[in-house]
Amino acid sequence: MIRIFPAHGIAAVALVAFALAGCTRAPAEALGTLEYDRITLPAPAAERIVDIAVREGERVEAGARVLTLEHTRGDAQLAAAQADVARQREALDELRNGARAETVAQARANLSAAQAQARDARAYFERLRPLGGQQLVSQADVDRARAAMGNADGQVAAAQAALDELRNGARPEQVAQAQAALGAAEAQLAAQSYSTERLDVVAPRAGRVDSLPYRLGDEAPIGAPLAVMLVGDQPYARVHVPEPLRAGIEVGDAATVLVGANGERRYSGRVRMIRAEPAFTPYYALTGKDAARLSYLAEVQLDDAAALPAGLPLRVQFDVVR
């Protein structure tokens, strides 16, 4: 049996259905793109690129060589640092070992010669002094003989001190200074060795090579990005949250990520970051309805989406809006 409703009854049913549909709240959405963490491999020196071992889009493991810079200058500086370390080490060993036997023997011989000259000068003075008292020689000759004797005694004292210095060896302070100089040279060698090793640019983490801004033969300035890598086990959604939704979203909230222009791929995720400062227009420049144009950068970590490439468009539906 077919029941026919009055016209006003059909209108009432339609009105109720429309009201119920209006009570169903559409999920809060934000638009963005799929991203991975990006790391930059800067140029350690202004050297020419002599080899590129990877291509853009290629996946590499941690420690894999990405490209190589010219080593000529770095190798020369490393060799100079190694030579300086060797020189400082030999200087320290020389102080610790003391004087050679031949050097000590030479100092002893110099002392003997000075003692012989001193004895001769003293004997000459002793012979001349009585003659001066008898006025057989002038007093000036006696004074010169006395001065020569004193000078000879001084030469003996100097030769004796030189011999004692060789026998006693280097002072502890000299050894300490030589040790400090060697330590400084070794530190400089370590720094130069590290700088030379960095001329072989390697991947610090496993990931995918996203960009190689420079080509073979280029000479990038120090600090310029030689390569940009995408790293991380899972991608994340980078979206701009409209101002009306900002107050209801917190770090840790669950979200649904629809990847693709039509949202054909669906993934679950959680908010891992949301900025406190708005993007684009500063908040103090907007009032009233214009404030709704503000957007806040947020990141939503995806689960089980490691195979997706970066740059895909997406929509994020936030499950909880307070």
Structure overview:
This is HlyD family secretion protein. Its main location: other. It comes from Luteimonas terrae. It is found in: Cell envelope. Keywords: Coiled coil, Signal. The protein is an alpha+beta fold and 322 residues long. Among the domains are: 94 residues, Elongation Factor Tu (Ef-tu), domain 3, CATH 2.40.30; 71 residues, Helix Hairpins (Orthogonal Bundle), CATH 1.10.287. It is built from six helices and eleven strands. The strands form two sheets. The chain has a six-stranded antiparallel β-barrel. A three-stranded antiparallel sheet has the order 2-4-5, with no helix packed on it. Strand 8 and strand 9 form a beta hairpin. Helix 2 packs antiparallel against helix 5 and helix 3 packs antiparallel against helix 4. The chain is rod-shaped, with a radius of gyration of 45 Å. 18% of the residues are buried. The N terminus is likely disordered.
Mean pLDDT over all positions:
85
Task: Tell me the strand order in the biggest sheet.
Answer: 1-7-10-9-8-11
Examine the secondary-structure arrangement and name the CATH architecture of the domain at 29-36 and 233-318. Answer: Beta Barrel
Which residues form runs of ≥5 with pLDDT under 50? 1-24
- Indicate the percent of residues in helices: 40-55%
Give the full name of the CATH homologous superfamily of the domain at 29-36 and 233-318: Efflux pump adaptor protein, beta barrel domain
Task: Report how far the terminal alpha carbons are from each other.
Answer: 49 Å
CATH class of the domain at 29-36 and 233-318: Mainly Beta
Largest sheet: 6 strands, antiparallel, barrel
Task: Give the CA-based shape.
Answer: rod-shaped
Computed over alpha carbons, the radius of gyration is 45 Å
